[in-house]
Amino acid sequence: MKLASYQDGSRDGQLVVVSRDLTQAHYATGIADRLQQVLDDWNFLAPQLQDLYAGLNAGRAPHAFAFDAQRCMAPLPRPRQWLGALAYPSHVQRVHGEGVLPPGGLLAPLYQGGGERLLGAHEALAVPNGRAEPDLGAQLAVVTGEVPQGASPEQALASVRLLVLANAVVLRSLWRREAERGLGPLQALPAIAFGPVAVTPDELGEAWHQGRVHLTLQVDCNGRRIGRCEAGSDMGWHFGELLAQAVATRGAGAGTLLGSGPVSNADPAKGCSCLAERRALEVLDGASGPRTPLLGEGDRVRIEMKLRSGQSVFGAIDQVVVFQG
Amino acid sequence: MKLASYQDGSRDGQLVVVSRDLTQAHYATGIADRLQQVLDDWNFLAPQLQDLYAGLNAGRAPHAFAFDAQRCMAPLPRPRQWLGALAYPSHVQRVHGEGVLPPGGLLAPLYQGGGERLLGAHEALAVPNGRAEPDLGAQLAVVTGEVPQGASPEQALASVRLLVLANAVVLRSLWRREAERGLGPLQALPAIAFGPVAVTPDELGEAWHQGRVHLTLQVDCNGRRIGRCEAGSDMGWHFGELLAQAVATRGAGAGTLLGSGPVSNADPAKGCSCLAERRALEVLDGASGPRTPLLGEGDRVRIEMKLRSGQSVFGAIDQVVVFQG
């Protein structure tokens, strides 16, 4: 099923069920008001939402209305936490260098992000200024139920309730400065925007396989193609492995978000899901150094993922960059 | 006023108002069920709780009952986020080295922590094992209302709603490994325990001054004195400065926690608020190297802060270490 949180003046938004084709919606009132409630009591509430979803898709929901992605907040506007992975080795090698990959390659690069400043799909992307070197970070993230401390990758994978589309913006100059100090990124992570709807993994059919999403992530900037990367093929660790690593020493509560990091493929012809990686490829390409600028005021970022049928899975992230400082 | 969250089988607990002398309590039912609700709507709800608190202190609350710290969860069991500072330069120099202090000393060492595995004051302190080098981290933390992006230190300080007592455990061997990779601590931060009650800053009277708490933090391990550090005098940045740094590029929601890091004084005779610092002082002291072990199975940690009158501010953290792995 597909779920969204409509703006209603509250911090958590109003839960709506959205039809598979993203044209119709229905308030979940009577079942749950907020998505966090559903995550807290999934086994009881999700089947009721699933019934409503089936009715909506069949044109049998009595109070359905036209779905408007402009009214969406992030699907989970106040998550328990955001865990950031860098799960694509080709991205890590091109942008961060091998240093963040621990010896042996068993552990994934993983950091604790904040659960703040979550944006809806069409909200302006406010960043401090160009000197901070703002960059997009197109990726998928999972939304979990409870993940107990010490869960195995398989147990952790079974805790995945929903998938979301995300643009986790990075301020590259601050990232480098904070990485040098060893305390990890904090100011470097200004905002995360989300696609309009969250979907249960069964919506992806066979494309959800062994903890990876085998579909193409479409990333454009100002109408120009930045990337058409395959999200599944080159993901170094699957979502269950990433979650298990995160809960090695402490459990994660229902409503935890874990993002894959910018999707990337070994084949540079697929493009990229962030601009720093594109610039790194331009440097490797020789000649005159990087040509693609990082994000500038007024730039428009568009991110979407479609099924093989052409149906948009999450709806699109479509945002304009605004400088604030 | 003083507030606590009683265990009631829910993830958020049941809000209770606690008398100043920590002997009596009263459910806040009818005003708010959960502390997060109060933080979301502080100006409307806090005065109502204050009235109940005044009645409780005066012996005029009709359904008061004996306060039992054993029944307390963390005062805010599901906070928006945990921001970890290392705000005491003497602690940083002795334990982490100068590397985490940026040039010029203007910025504080600050990291994004997780908001998970928050423990009540008497819950067992579960850590993986001794090889992870578990250490305590006795400190104060503030609980905020909304802190807008770009808030000044004064604005950020005005957002402080409550103070809490915390033991943010660190796994030292994992911290070093994660710091080397530049992504910051994640597995190194297993659990944070909290004193039974959260208090509004006015409870501290003159001891709350210019964003610092001028009282002594008492830290004992197995009945032995570890530290009697002054929390105010050597704090390199006050809580408003730390919060302002954290919101430079993104706002923080109501219910954000920011911890000061282990309290420490330049004068080593005051002792320490973590064991790694004590070991570092033992090394500096010459002779035979560090004598104090890090936390071991069955160790008992006790942390408390008292007013000059002898009244306990937050109640005590009193926990026993349990190895899990």
UniProtKB/TrEMBL annotation, chains A, B:
Gene3D superfamilies recorded: Fumarylacetoacetase-like, C-terminal domain
One Gene Ontology term of the molecular function aspect: hydrolase activity
Source superkingdom: Bacteria
Coiled coil: none
Pfam families given in the database record: FAA_hydro_N_2 (PF18288), FAA_hydrolase (PF01557)
Chain ranges of the Fumarylacetoacetase-like C-terminal domain: 86-312
Domain (Fumarylacetoacetase N-terminal) ranges: 1-78
Family annotation (InterPro entries): FAA_hydro_N, Fumarylacetoacetase-like_C, Fumarylacetoacetase_C_sf
Keywords per UniProt: Hydrolase
UniProt cross-references to SUPFAM superfamilies, sorted A to Z: FAH
Protein name: Fumarylacetoacetate (FAA) hydrolase
Native source species: Melaminivora alkalimesophila
